[in-house]
Structures are given as structure tokens and as C-alpha cells.
Amino acid sequence: MITRTLLTIVTTAMCTMAFAADEVKIGMLQGFTGPTESLVAPMAKGGELAIKEVSDSGLFLGGKKVVSVRGDSTCIDAAAATAAAERLITSEGVVAINGATCSGATTAVLNNVAVPNGVVMISPSATSPALSTIEDNGLFFRTAPSDARQGEIMGKVLGSRGIKSVALTYTNNDYGKGLADSFKAAFEASGGEVTIVAAHEDGKADYAAEVGALSSAGGEILVVAGYLDQGGKGVIQAALDSGAFSKFMLPDGMVGDSLAQAFGTGIEGSFGTVPGTDSPGAKMMGDITKGADFSGTDPYVPECYDASALLLLAMQSAGSTDSAVFKEHVMKVANAPGEKIYPGELAKALKILADGGEVDYVGGSAVELVGSGESAGSFREVEIKDGTFATVTYH
Amino acid sequence: MDVLNALVLFANFVVVPATAYGAQLALGALGITLIFGILRFANFAHGELMSFGTMATILLTWFLQAQGAGIAPLPTALLALPLGIVAAIAAALATDRAVYRFYRHKRANPIIFAIVSVGVMFVMAGLIRIIIGPDDQSFADGARFLIRAQEFRQVTGLKEGLAIKQSQLITVSIAVIVVLLLFWFLQKTRSGKAMRAYSDNEDLALLSGIDPDRVVTIAWIITATLATIAGVLYGLDKTYKPFIFLQLLLPIFAAAILGGIGQPVGAILGGFVVAFSEVMVTYAYKKFFSYLGPEGWAPDGLVQLLSTDYKFAVSFIILVAVLLIRPTGIIRGRVL
Is B243's Cβ below 8 Å from some Cβ in A? Predict the structure, then answer.
């Protein structure tokens, strides 16, 4: 009798394990709380949409299911990000990570968790130039371009608008500093003048003193390399209140609906840059999210969808969920040669790969991985018109 | 030379913001100084008391806004303020009953009181975060500006604009009214005189038949009222975030000690000195001097004494300097 009970237990346990093995877990490690929380809500849904698409196709590695496990990387708390990543890998057993959202958190997770555990990580939105040269054992990729690239584009946009002198403030972290440095270098190289470079701290109540210094230095517009839910918003508020600046240049961290809602026509004519493309993928991304509770055209949603898609296609191409094996296949599925794959066509891609063919994943953000595995980057120039962000052109 | 533009610039970026900030600090410092005068300890929980009263006011403001009640163009928060004050008084009296009274009856050392107040501060901070959360809350409504920078430029034809926010005017006028009421109370009423007597010499006051419990209760009521008004005005002018009240504690203490602790006039003086120092030391005078200098000339640097990152260091420096050089403060008060 006892033997029989034991046998049942063992069999049940084995069945459960067998079931678990059929399910591939992908970590969705994003900044669900903190300065980027309003950006992340739709991003994570975009990333999970690709996972669901692959899972539902029934073609992934011979019919395995894929699920997403969320973890909160916050944005500014490296210790929290590390702990969340640790949990995803060691206790949830994820095979790869889509994340993290911010550059500081991404660096911490990569150094402390992803590299030691040998797990592939693709960030949809970490843009610090420092991540281009980080020691990653070939495990780290990003579908977002480096800020060095955004800095050049920002300089170009200012040039095309005939603006010669600007004041620059940045949020005092890896992202802000990196972007500010690359922008300043690019803008000055093209003959522009940066009158002042001043950091601001997030999470303060009052930015009147910071704006006072910025205003005193002068400049036609104020470049705010910060976060829209944090100090960046406070700086704009203080600048408008004191009449110091009325036009702003807003890099990607500042472009979002909540900023347009907060200031509306008060910052009419302000403009910014945000990763984006006019490739058919961007439109298709919008199409496949019709009827969903988020929009495929929101900032970083296509990048997050693409990060999930690349992870899964690389696994399919390698025929394995082992990071050490499929890390070599990420660049292969992302770049030519091969059949071009757009959002919503993941099933097609899985089939081609299963049949031994090649794919060139384009996705929602026109992915083209260069260098150490980061997006070459195409940018959308936006401008506040009638109180909302409108697309001007693509770079 | 363009003196007028220079003056407007200075007013816009230094005088106006520093005056509003000074009034907010002065109200906070008055609370600290009153508690020190009556209960004889440095109340570190004062910042959180401000936060608590403000939170209650915000919750009520949201309720009123949802009901469509308002007193436009004035902010709805002013309507909610009295009930917010009542909530803060209740919280202050409850902590006194639950915590401070025990130590008072034991005639505990002031340093023990100060440490107990740090404990109260943490408990209250936690409570506030549970109720309203740690995030930024916006509750200001009504007209935002009295004078817009753009309008000022058009009307006067000057190059520089002067912006005065409605919240800044409300802050200063309410602070003036509250301070006048407080002084009238302390100088003219029986209870006020009893409080001053108690503050001067506790034993003598007890001998003349002053009821100590009543004096303490009144002190807490006044302190909670001042704290809530200061917090709400700060929130209207800037923003409400539970986290910032810990940061505010430093300039408030600096103001109270600089003015002379236990001296209400000193607290007001201290509030303005600290506010003006913070703003003036961190302001970049480049543009200001370029207006005063010859046409087309501008200083090379920013002419900024201290980067804005070090704003809070100013209060620290003032605090340390006062304690070293004149521990009694500007108007001779007690020594901490």
C-alpha cells in the first residue's frame, strides 16, 4: 500500500515536472514602479504580446508554451533591480530576460545577475552609451539605440530648426549624464553653443533655484534630459512659472502622454526625439494592438515587443533555450539575410526557422543590430501641436 | 546699464520665490519654537505633522472637487484647510496622550524627548505613506497666476518678466494673518499669558495656579494648526510629496535656532533669513550683472556662489555657524 502511495506521489511529481519543462519562462524585468512607471505599463504589455503570439502559434521548439514572469526593476534602485532579477532566474527559472528599463538598473542586473548566471538579456529601453562597451560575454543586447546616437539626432533637429544656443539640464543618473554628454559633444561639433550644463535631482518639490541658474545662463530653448514623471516635469513647471523658458527640447525620457496632459498648450511648439521608425513595421505594430488596452505606437512598446520576439526567435533558430547556445543566434535572426519579419508574423518566422530557413527580423522598430548588439536606431521627431505630441518626421 | 531690468530679474528669481518660501519656513519654525518653549524639546516629528495635516486637507480637497464644490479662483484646498487642521490637532493630541505625556510625568530628560519624537516621526511617516502613498499628489486648482511673465513684459515693455503665482500671494497673506493672530493670542489673552509664564518658569507658573495640562493642550493645538497651514501652503506653491517633509525639517530647524529658540519673532526672522540665503547663494547672477554692466558685456562665468545641488548645505552652514558663534540666536532665546 505504502509502495503504491509512494509510486503515485513520484509519478505525480514527475508529471508536474514534465509539464513545467514544456513551459518556457521569459522574465519581464521592467520598471513597473518609479520614474518610468507610466512608460512601462504599455511596454510590458507589448513585450507580453509577442510572447503570447509565439506561445499560441504552437510552433515554438516543437509546441512548447511560453509565459512571461514579471519582475520590478524600478528605475533608480539598483539593489531592487538586482534582487528582482535574482528572483526571476533562481526561483522562477526564466531562460532569458526582457529588460531592464533604465540604464542604471540594466547595468546592475547585467553585472550582478545576468553575466554570473549566464542568462541572455535584451533591454528594450536602456540607452546609456556605457552599455555599448560593457563586459557582457555576448549575453547583452538592446533593441533601443545608444544615447550617443540620440545626441547626434538631437543636434541635427536643433540645426534644422535654426537654433544656435541652448541651456541643458539633465537628471543626475547614468541615462541623463550619458545623454547630456553625447548631445553636448554633437551639438558643439556642429557649431551650436550650450550655455550651461546643470544636473537636477529627481524627487524634489521645488526646482525654482535650478531654473534660476539655467535662465541666467540664457539660451533660446531649454533641453531637458530627464524623466516626465519626475524632475523633468518639475523643471518645466518651474521654467513656465517664472517665465524663464517657454520652449523645450524633450528627449525620449520626456516624451509621453502624461507630459502633454500636464502642460498641454502651455508648451506648444516644444519638440523632441523618441526612437521610432516609418518602416511598415511601426504601422503593423499599431494594427495588431487595435482593440487591446494599450497602443502599439506608444514609446518603447515596439522595442519591447521586438526584444521578446528576438529572444524567442533566437531560441527557435538555435533549437535550444540555453543562453550559452542561443546567444549566438540573436544577431543572426535580427539581421539580413533572410525573410523579413514584421509584427504579427512571428508564427511565420518560427516555421521558417524550424524548416532550417533564415529570417531577418524587422519588427516594430526596424531592428538592425550593430556593434556589440544594439539597435542602429531610427528616431521620430515629435512636436507639441494643439497640446499633444504629433510626429513631424523620421531620422 | 539697465537697472530696471536687473531689478525685475532679481525680483522674479530671488525676491518673490524666497518670500513665499520664507513664509512657509517661518510658519514651520514657529511650531518648533512653541513646542520647545512649552514642552522643552526639539520636536523632530514636526515635519511629519505638517505632512499629516496636509494629507488630510488633500483628501478632503479631492472629495470637495469631486462634489464640484469650490471657491474659484481661490484653490479648493483653502476650503478644506479647517478640517485638515482639525485632523492634525487630533493626531497631535493623540500622540501627546499616547507618548509624550508618559515621559512628561516622568520628567524625562529633553534628549529623551527628542529621541522619542524621532520615533513618532517614523511612525507618522509610515502611516502617511500607507494612507496616501509615497507619490507626488497634485491638489492645487483655481487660478495659477496673478501676473504672468509674458503679460508683465507686454505691459511694461521690459525685457524681463515678473511672474507672481496666486499661491505665493496666498502664502504670504495667510502667513501674515496667522502670525498677527498668534501674537495677539500670546500677548493679550489669558491663555496666551499663561503659556508665556509657563514657558518662562514652569515651577513659578504652577505655583500661581496655571494648569499645565491645559497649557500643553493649547500648545499642541496651535502647533498643529501652524504645521498644517505651513504644509498646505508649501504644497499649493510647490507640490505635495511625503518624502520632502524630512528634507524640510533641516531649514525649519535652522530657522528656529537662528532666530533664537523659544522666540516667536525670532522664528519668523529666521525663516526669512534662511530662505533668502538659500535662494541668493545658489542663484546665478550672470544675467543680473550683464544688465548692470556696459551694453553687450556679460560675465564669463555664471557668477554663482554655490551650485543648486548644495541648496540644503546652506541651511546646514547657517545652523553650524549660529551654534558656534551665537548659540542663543538673533533674538536671545534658549540654548538647545
Answer: yes
